[in-house]
Amino acid sequence: MNYFVIVDVTLRKGIADPEGSTIERALPALGFTGVTNVHAGKSFRFDVEAESEEAALEKATSLAERLLSNPVIEDALPRIGER
Amino acid sequence: MNYFVIVDVTLRKGIADPEGSTIERALPALGFTGVTNVHAGKSFRFDVEAESEEAALEKATSLAERLLSNPVIEDALPRIGER
Amino acid sequence: MSSPAPLHRALGLTDTELESIREVLGREPNSLELALYGVMWSEHCSYKSSRIHLRRLPTEAPHVLVGPGENAGVIDAGDGIAVAIRIESHNHPSAIEPYQGAATGVGGILRDVFTMGARPLAVMDPLFFGELSDARQRWLVEGVVSGISGYGNSVGVPTIGGELTFDDCYASNPLVNVLCCGAMPIQRLVLGVASGVGNLAVLLGSSTGRDGIGGVSVLASAGFDGADGAESLDDAKRPSVQVGDPYEEKRLIEACLALLDDGLVVGIQDLGGAGIVCATSETAARGGVGMDVDVTAIPLREAGMAPFEIMTSESQERMLAIITPENWDAVAALCTKWEVRATIVGHVVEPSIDANGRSVAMLRVRQGFGGEVLAEVPASSLADEAPLYNRPMARPADLDAIIADDPSDDEPVGSPNDDLLELLVDPAWVYRQYDSQLFLNTVVGPGRDAALLRLAGPGLPSSERGVALSTDSNPRWCALDPRAGTALTVAESVANLACVGATAKAVVNCLNFGNPEHPEVMWQLSEAIDGMTEACVGLGLPVIGGNVSLYNESGGHDIDPTPVVGLLGVIESLVAPPPGWEWRKGDDIVLVGARHANSHYRFPLGGTRWATRRGRRGGHVPYFDAETLAAAINFVAGEVASICAGQASDVTAVHDVGGGGLAVALAEMVAVTALGVEIVELESHAELFAEFPGRFVVATNDVQSFIARAELAGVPVVPLGTVGGRTLRIGSMIELSVDEVASRRRGALEESLAAVL
Amino acid sequence: MARIGVVVFPGSNCEFDAAAAVTRLGDQAEFVWHTRTDLDGIDGVILPGGFAHGDYLRPGALARFSPVMGAVERFAATGGPVLGICNGFQVLVEAGMLPGALQKNRGLTFLCQPTTLVVSSTSSVLTRGATIGQELVVPINHFSGSYTCDDETHDELVRNGQIVLRYKENPNGSRDDIAGVANKSGNVVGLMPHPERAMSALLGSADGMVLFEGFLGVKVAPFVLAH
Ligand SMILES: Nc1ncnc2c1ncn2[C@@H]1O[C@H](COP(=O)(O)OP(=O)(O)O)[C@@H](O)[C@H]1O
Ligand SMILES: [Mg+2]
Question: Is residue D222 situated within a structural domain?
Fold first, then answer.
């Protein structure tokens, strides 16, 4: 079976997020108020060939932790997605 | 009310995704097989002050299209997220 | 098949052009054939409006190895090294997706250079935007600069200079020009020629997607899909934006140069605008041979692509190599090492014999080698025989009135101090984002008069020489007088090179103009070409390549005529850096060159930055006078060259007087040295801000001996003052602290951009 | 004469420049393609700057899986000198051979400019020929050069003298102005600035010379492990 997996990669708490803060600072000038705590992250989407949803997630988790994120600064969360 | 919004920015269908293809090509050598159609995207997380969920999403959509993506090559999909 | 009659217009072909196609083929073209003509006979590919004018440019000199017409111009730079150079525009793509538009512009210009066998060693990026008070312009600037940075840095070619102009005429039509210069051992020079019947056409690099199909996409809409079998495609979703992949390009560069070093290719050609049809028809036409292309062999990124999409796609990072069949295994092995995909997509075949017994090199598009022929047209009819137009020309009716309204007569309003501060901009925010040092060649990087590089690089014979590069433009002059404006722009460029000791050797140009269907635009283009011709003949320079970008319109208005000059020079011995702008305490400052302009006015202000900032866009442009210019330029170039050759000199700093005039040139030197200067009283405020080339500010620690040398050379010198203190003082007109000058200049651009990300 | 292996990944672009710095000081440079799995006969390894594997995913993230990296790790484990410059530094942290991580620059733009470095520790193969407090003008050329680590790691770096170079004026937001760090033994060093671009007055600075002299063992005693 082919499963569609999405991995969200976000910066770990406490790690500086210059991209998020820059966007946040720029917002008022562009007319956006009331938007706070902006954080920038990455996401990866792919198909995983596996026996079961669980097996697919397991594979995706290993991929996410070993490759798609840098554990020193990032968290990675895989989930089964909808196409 | 404060709503937590996540905006996923992905490349539009048909637009070349060199990052995704490069990662995909590298996988077999790293011992990951059966992973295909890899696509790389961005995501933004923020809090929106708004009257209702709908109003929050509307604000996020405008923000997503005007600032967080270029609709010529990217799709931006805002959703209410869980913290 | 649906009748092609309504189709040809949708493909951008006129009724007369359709008639010519029928004549060439001796029959009705099918829709695929029409699509091929549609892209190849577009203005972009065929230069149909400009070609008859471009023929007037001088193109020859003993050191020219390859002139216009090839992918890049090439000169013999000495010591067994050939230098290739090319400039191109990527204006329209950059207007809708600034990052990718600029990035793919860099990718394209690199391919033009390494397809000649040269390793790309330097990029330059002349950029033109609307005023930064508009948020969209800031978005464009950020996007374009990061696109050039993102692609150029990653692909590993330093960006060593460019231009940065802000003017409302570019508000919805920014100009993004990119120049690339590369070098090769002279024997590696190759041309994009297919020859040798039985040889193979090998497609290298990326797969082919529906990128940049643009105009021909009408074929996909209902009614036209029959013959080509295009699957239901939602036009609105069709991506015409190309995404650059610098990593693919980097591997492509290494693989192609290695193929050439190993003698494995007969000819090689990049895929640019019009993709495979362009590369195959051009190589076949140049070689006088036929070419069979198998559309099913081409690796695709997307399913269900129709032949017209495959043939015209502008997917990036692809090259076409012509090889002998015996070399296929070696080519494949080398490409595997560099992880570059190599696929045989075509065969070189005998030319066909037409009804009159003449041999005609045919491009045939087939469904499988030996399979059904989907299109069959003479290669040269696509590549070289587009109709040429001598479009109507007319001098703008209001030009005389505009010229008559000359700001040189204006009395100064307000303080010259403020005027000067307003004119100071340091483009460092831009060029700091570019790797300008890779290959350890950059002796003078961005931010000075011209860039100066050692003539060295991987695989080159060793040499003590250097090459210098400058890009220049002056749309303000060219709007008033495109002929004199263009000639003066060339002169300004030659003066820039003199500041780093180099002798100009060759010109490339990028002619950015408005809509050629406007007679005024055609007149501007023709005048600009005459001006370039006059300057190049007068200064002894060949034009070895260029690019024409038309249809640059903004809100219904044509942009100001913007011919961009790229100039390549050589210095014979480069063992010490040129003096630069850093003068020293106690130095004497002199002005070298004619003090007064050869013009209606001693100090003309027409078309200057000073006048434009005040909304004054009229006036007279100075005359171009090759002899006077050449004397000053050659003298300065010689002075600097001897310093670069390691000789002792009393000259400590050199800067040419360019945009903003004498006051700006002095202020720039004050800013970078952080040392003040005391300048004598000038004739008038106009002398502060007048712009005309051929003048240099020189600092010397032995003014007597310097003046003696200048006199010997017949070049006028005016003593201006002495270096020292913490103030920039120019007579009674300017008095500014060094810190204010420096901080205003440093911060100007960033402050204007600050409102955006 | 030392034999220095300059590792070349697809996408590397400073390999010629690194090799030029080595040969300029009279040693021998040898390109090591990333698929090689041995470093036989090599006396020192340089991971040069550039964009290995396009820097896709994260700088260094794909490169650290290249076959050659196993050999580099073994080489380092036996005390062999390893120098990562810019992208090479990013590969070393991704591979876990050096602590910390490199994030995007504070200003979110690529930066190519001269910087002044201050030598903070001389117990590394790179800085052993310099003196503490010595100032060196060396250019930077990166987008992701902001050094990041947690407090614990930082304490340890300080305690062990592993912070070898700091910026005099921080250009990119690096924690504690860090420009370069070493491993505990001092034989593996990574730095974001490009010392190979500062080897000649003609090009603006020759201050990188003292660093390469250290790395190549010129004019200084052979490196002795610090711990
Ligand atoms: N877009 C750019 N990219 C890189 N360098 C630039 C850019 N714009 C300007 N520069 C550099 O800044 C310096 C000043 O440019 P300019 O004012 O056009 O010089 P000049 O008036 O002498 O022709 C030049 O060295 C130029 O190469
Ligand atoms: Mg210039």
Answer: no
What's the pLDDT at C241?
Answer: 82
Partner-chain contact C247 B22, CB within 8 Å: yes
**What 8-state DSSP symbol labels residue C679?**
E
Q: Among all chains, which residue has been given the structure tokens 């995007």? A: D104
- CA nearest neighbour of C268 among C257, C277, C290: C257
What is the count of structural domains for chain D? 1
Contact call for residues C336 and C294 (beta carbons, < 8 A)? no
Query: Does residue C214 register a pLDDT over 70?
Result: no
Q: Which CATH number is D179's domain given?
A: 3.40.50.880
- With the most atoms of ligand 1 within 8 angstroms of its CB, the residue from C125, C431, C581 to mutate is C431
Exposure pattern of C496-515 as b/e (b: 16+ CB <10 Å)?
Answer: bbbbbbbbbbbbbbbbbbbb
Residue C408 to residue C389: CA distance in whole angstroms? 39
Domain count, chain B: 1
Q: Which of D97, D94, D99, D83 is closest to D7 using CA atoms?
A: D83
Gyration radius (Cα) of chain A, Å: 16
End-to-end CA distance of chain C: 52
Residue that the structure tokens 């896709």 belong to: D56
**CB of D10 closer than 8 Å to CB of D52:** yes
Could you tell me the two tokens for C195? Answer: 């020859």
Interacting residues of B31 by C-beta distance below 8 A, sequence separation 6+: none
Tens digit of pLDDT for each residue in C344-362? Answer: 999 999 998 888 888 899 9
Interface of B with D (CB under 8 A): 18-19, 22-23, 26, 29-30, 40
Closest CA to D197 of C435, C573, C110, C448: C435
C426 CB within 6 A, ligand 1: no
| Cβ proximity of C301 and C214 under 8 Å | no
Minimal Cβ distance to B48: which of A10, A35, A43: A35
Q: What domain range is D87 assigned to?
A: 3-216
Mutate to test the interface with B, among C301, C338, C341 (most CBs of B within 10 A): C301
Distance from residue C484's CA to the centre of ligand 2 (Å): 18
Q: Is residue D70 situated within a structural domain?
A: yes
In a domain, D225, yes or no: no
**Residue labelled with tokens 């007569």:** C409
CATH number at residue A64: 3.30.1280.10
Which residues span the domain enclosing A33? 2-80
Q: Which of B35, B49, B63 sits opposite A46 (nearest CB)?
A: B35
At which residue do the structure tokens 């066909």 appear?
C352
Provide the ipTM: 0.94
3-class DSSP string for chain A: CEEEEEEEEEECCCCCCHHHHHHHHHCHHHCCCCEEEEEEEEEEEEEEECCCHHHHHHHHHHHHHHHHCCCCCEEEEEEECCC
Of A18, A68, A70, the CB nearest to D101: A70
Question: Is D114 inside a domain boundary?
Answer: yes
| DSSP annotation of C462 | P
Catalytic residue among C8, C44, C518, C685: C44
Distance (Å, whole) CA B75 – CA B8: 8
Q: Residues D13-51: pLDDT tens digits?
A: 999 999 999 999 999 999 999 999 999 999 999 999 999
CA of C473 to the centre of ligand 2 (A): 8
Tell me if B43 and A46 make a contact (CB, 8 A cut-off).
no
pTM of the model: 0.95
